[in-house]
Amino acid sequence: MRIAVDIDNVLADTANAVLKGINKKYNTKFTEEDVSSWDHRWDINGTTISYTDELFELYDTFGFLYSIPAYKDGVNAVRNMIHNNHEVFLLTGRMPKYKPMTDLWANRVYPNITVRYADGKEKYSDLFDVLIDDSPREVKNVSRAGKHVLLMDRPWNRDVPKIYGKRVYNWNEVMNCIKYKLW
Fold this sequence. Notes:
This protein has 183 residues and is of the alpha/beta class. It has two domains: 2-13 and 69-180, HAD superfamily/HAD-like (Rossmann fold), CATH 3.40.50; 14-65. The chain is built from seven helices and eight strands. A six-stranded parallel sheet has the order 5-4-1-6-7-8, sandwiched between helices. The protein has a two-stranded antiparallel ribbon with strand order 2-3. Strand 2 (41-44) and strand 3 (47-50) form a beta hairpin.
């Protein structure tokens, strides 16, 4: 199969890296469970904290993208997919200005893997059979394009209807879905 895998919050623990920066900056204790949408906002003592604004501020900090930890089970699963002769590539919605650091991160984790950059992953749906992603928008659009979607469970996507993909809770489930074509 041809499998496209998102980077942020699927292969890279981006939300927790961003929250670590927010918590340090604002002396807060937010967790991933506190992020219910892409542009989540908190009002703390008269200060509005925007998850998205803080994310892009950190993205623009030299070395931040390279330093985001990869989920070890995701790394092993992708390597396993490649070993089992699946065509795997990374498909991210990151802006082009983040390409150099994203490519460095990807090649550190998965030497020689292809990274594609897409604003609207459904535009690339002819390149894959299955998309593994966490974005409600991407999951809806790709499933409407007629492709199989595995939705990695995250707090910000828990209201996505079942019709848009199969929700998976860990990489073992992902591997079983791929092995047995459970969509």
